[in-house]
Specification:
By secondary structure, the protein is α/β, with parallel strands linked by helices. 39% of the residues lie in helices and 24% in strands. The chain has ten helices and ten strands.
Length: 261
């Protein structure tokens, strides 16, 4: 499989007295998709910010092809495509203008930009809306524009922080298949999500978080086998929530069905 494209070693992050994540380690090799799964507040977004260089770890380091990312952050940032959980876009720009801006910053030649942008806008059913201001876009349309922007420069690494947020069923399926095809071509993919079904379908490897710490990790097939006949969903609940979801659901349903008068 070759050397890891990206590797995290002992990452920890504190905000004052609060420890957001503790001693997180993982690596992603070409063709691998690592899913980072955990309940809200488990530290997923903090890890994303550290591996993209947006936040410095309190301890530990991130390596890109064996070199610390702070050694040449400009080079590193040219090598990955990032889809944030909540993208901030320039609403006064049209979709095409925004992608043109990204292409200029990425130093993509104009002819190549036009060809790639047109093809991806068409594929994500945004081509008819390319000249409309982003302020008029729905959440799903904005998410698709960000996905296109992350893919245009052919990055070695994709960092996806809840990329399916706001996408309809068709767009979500197309996005998942695109990510799978890119991984099959040797891209490394970091995929953060609170939704187990998405991770189970897309990922080759899995890291499960609870309150900022890793409670399980490994190839997803081994993880499934290690739950002793339980589904991945049941194993995840046991590792992270330690609650009886069925009983809780019954109590909520009973309260909802109780007479209102």
């Amino acid at each position: 499989m070759g050397e890891p494209i990206i590797e995290a070693r002992g990452l920890s992050k504190r905000y004052g007295a609060v420890s957001a994540v503790r001693d997180i380690s993982f690596s992603i090799r070409p063709g691998e998709t690592l899913g980072v799964l955990g309940p809200n507040g488990s530290g997923k977004s903090t890890i994303v910010k550290m591996i993209t260089g947006l936040v410095e770890p309190s301890r530990g380091l991130v390596l890109f092809r064996g070199v610390r990312i702070e050694a040449d952050q400009a080079c590193y940032k040219r090598s990955f495509g990032y889809v944030p959980e909540q993208p901030d876009l320039y609403g006064f720009l049209t979709g095409w203008e925004y992608l043109d801006l990204v292409a200029t910053l990425r130093e993509i030649p104009p002819r190549i930009f036009r060809e790639k942008a047109a093809a991806m806008l068409e594929g994500f059913t945004l081509y008819p809306h390319r000249d409309s201001p982003i302020a008029s876009y729905s959440k799903g349309m904005r998410q698709r524009i960000v996905l296109i922007a992350a893919l245009m420069h052919d990055p070695e690494l994709l960092v996806l922080d809840e990329p399916f947020s706001g996408l309809d069923v068709t767009s979500a399926l197309v996005t998942r298949l695109v990510v799978e095809l890119l991984a099959a071509k040797g891209k490394a993919v970091f995929f953060s999500s609170p939704v187990l079904e998405q991770v189970e379908k897309m990922c080759t490897h899995l890291v499960v978080l609870k309150r900022g710490s890793v409670v399980a990790s490994g190839p997803i097939g081994e993880m499934q086998a290690g739950f002793a006949g339980q589904s991945l969903e049941a194993g995840f609940m046991q590792l992270t929530e330690q609650v009886d979801a069925g009983r809780i659901a019954e109590n909520i349903a009973a309260a909802a069905l109780a007479p209102a008068r």
